[in-house]
Design goal:
- The protein has helices at 66-70, 94-97, and strands spanning 3-13, 18-23, 36-39, 42-52, 55-60, 76-80, 101-104, 109-118, 123-128, 134-138, 144-148, 153-156.
- The chain is mainly beta.
- It has a 6-stranded antiparallel β-barrel with strand order 1-2-5-4-3-6. Strands 10-9-8-7-12-11 form a 6-stranded mixed sheet, with no helix packed on it.
- The longest helix has 5 residues, at 66-70.
- The protein has 2 domains: 3-83, RimM (Elongation Factor Tu (Ef-tu), domain 3, Beta Barrel); 94-156, PRC-barrel domain (SH3 type barrels).
């Protein structure tokens, strides 16, 4: 079953087992009302969720002390794809974009998307070329002409190099 990343565990908060969660979702409100979440390879039961600035403070039934929860630092929080927040047409989860083969409008393969950077204005796709070098492409309509997630490909109009 494919999973979607929704956050990353940060440092413990306080002495009662709360931990900071750095949201990696455009829908941080999704944490409210959640009962369980996969943290790394472990299914954990959520006992509390509090919004605290740009992070979420979360506590788990299985980890009730600061020292215990510290061991989770750096692990990813994931949910099943079936629990993912539905997206508008023409928008995609980062996990759908990473791994797509990238072609120019003439059909030449450029490489594979190996990372996505969220810059605020627009995302930027990092494409690993066959020679090992990377190329950055703005995720805007002038550049990205087609995304075919089921087909595993993306077609781009590559700006000319300066």
């Amino acid at each position: 079953m494919e999973r979607i990343i929704i956050g990353k565990v940060g440092a413990p908060h306080g002495v009662r087992g709360e931990v900071r969660i750095i949201p990696e979702t455009d829908f941080p409100e999704r944490f409210h009302g959640m009962k369980e979440v996969q943290v790394g390879d472990e299914l954990l039961h959520i006992t509390s969720v509090k919004y605290h600035g740009n992070v979420i403070l979360m506590a788990f039934r299985e980890y009730q002390q600061r020292e215990q929860v510290a061991a989770l630092n750096g692990r990813l929080l994931t949910v099943a794809r079936s629990e993912a927040v539905p997206l508008e047409e023409g928008t995609y989860y980062i996990s759908d974009i990473v791994g797509l083969r990238v072609f120019d409008t003439a059909g030449q393969e450029i490489g594979v998307v190996d990372d996505v950077f969220q810059t605020g204005a627009n995302d930027v796709y990092q494409v690993r070329q066959p020679d090992g070098h990377t190329r950055l492409l703005a995720a805007i309509r002038d550049v990205v002409k087609e995304i075919d997630v089921p087909g595993g490909r993306m077609v781009v109009d590559v700006p000319e190099e300066i």
